[in-house]
Amino acid sequence: MSDADVPDQTADLLQRYVDAHGYLSWLGARVESIEYGELVMTIPFDTKLTNSGPGESSEMPARIHGGIAATLIDTTGGIALRPALDDPINGGVSTINLNVNYLRPAAGDLTATAEVIRAGTSVGVSAVTVESETPDGETKPVATGQGAYRLFRP
C-alpha cells in the first residue's frame, strides 16, 4: 500500500471512533493526521490531567500525569496499524506489550507521532514520540514508547 491508499475521510472516521470511546473522549483526544505508516494524535492540556494537588506551588507549572502520555502512546501506536489490516474497520488491534520512557515533564498539549515499524501477519510494532511544552516553555519530546500489537484479520 502507498500513502494514497489511505482515504481522505479516514481521519474523520477515526475521530468518530475516538469520540465514541468514553475514556479517549474524556481526555479530548484528537486525530490530527493519518498516512499509511504514520498517525498523529493530540490531547489538549487540562488541569484535570495533571499531578497537581494540595501544597503544589503556584509558581511551578502543572505537569501532566505520565499515564496520559502512556495512553496516547498505546492508542496512537495501535491505530497507526489499522490501515495495514485487510479490513481496517472490522479487523482488530490489541496491545501485547507497551514500553514507555519518560524523558521530561509535560506542561502543555501532548502531540504523539506514531510510526509503524512492522505490520506482519499477526503482530505489528509501532514506535511513538510524544512532544509537549515543558515547564521551561520549550516544546520537546517528553516521552517515547514502543508497542507490540496483535493484529486480528477477519
TrEMBL record:
Domain Thioesterase: 64-135
Annotated keywords: Hydrolase
SUPFAM superfamilies assigned to the protein according to its UniProt record, in alphabetical order: Thioesterase/thiol ester dehydrase-isomerase (SSF54637)
Lineage: superkingdom: Archaea
GO molecular function terms noted in the UniProt entry: fatty acyl-CoA hydrolase activity
Family: Belongs to the thioesterase PaaI family.
NCBIfam families named in the record: unchar_dom_1
Protein name, per record: Thioesterase domain-containing protein
